[in-house]
Amino acid sequence: xxxxxxxxxxxxxxxxxxxxxxxxxxxxxxxxxxxxxxxxxxxxxxxxxxxxxxxxxxxxxxxxxxxxxxxxxxxxxxxxxxxxxxxxxxxxxxxxxxxxxxxxxxxxxxxxxxxxxxxxxxxxxxxxxxxxxxxxxxxxxxxxxxxxxxxxxxxxxxxxxxxxxxxxxxxxxxxxxxxxxxxxxxxxxxxxxxxxxxxxxxxxxxxxxxxxxxxxxxxxxxxxxxxxxxxxxxxxxxxxxxxxxxxxxxxxxxxxxxxxxxxxxxxxxxxxxxxxxxxxxxxxxxxxxxxxxxxxx
Length: 297
Hints:
Layout: H1 14-17, H2 21-32, E1 42-44, H3 47-54, H4 62-75, E2 79-84, E3 87-92, H5 95-98, H6 130-133, H7 137-144, H8 181-198, H9 208-228, H10 233-246, H11 256-270, H12 284-294
Antiparallel strand pairs: 1-3, 2-3
Helix pairs in contact: 2-3, 2-4, 3-4, 8-9, 8-10, 8-12, 9-11, 10-11
């Protein structure tokens, strides 16, 4: 899972400058909290849930958070409200463009009605933007004034318009996936299992090019296989073993060699076909021990 980035240009954004400080904090939470917004920039709009994530340590009320949420919707044209199945959701328009997340997590949130896999902020119909639904005429006039910044409010937020971080480094290049300690432990355990079964040496990581190669051929595929099995270590091990079995007789040089086969296996499992019954089972004790061992940094 990629680390969320808040670019320093966020503070120069014209729409952001009109927000109150609680509204700015709430918007930052929407953009950076991986437990709130998904990897496409969609999140639930319920004020109680927003309060829990952004103001869990504060004494504000749910009603106040709703006012701050609506203030963001009024002032930021690329923060859009939509409804699905009787519930309200928020879309951070352009989020996938500026937050370069290579391996997107599965999501249970419904997509905005205008969304396609190739969607960008330019694919939002003008008459469906928040400015047409919520903003006053005076606010709209100020946005259209010659002195206003023409970049989309979230367009300059995240990785920046050139795809670089604030330090000028290419943050979209392949590197070792960032993960919570629990998920990192599972990925490490899958890596050790892969090494033990294939007898391949771990990747070299002494130089920058070696680290990029390791990220592309080792860590990113292992993270993807963990995501495919919902970070279930037992199922991840089964997936690796089943993929190796299907590729028997072919050269396997890194976890990358198994990835396409693993994705096909997940499809088979979803259709009720072979579920890795011949792979080793892990007891609860073995699973806990493995997670403890590989959870150490």
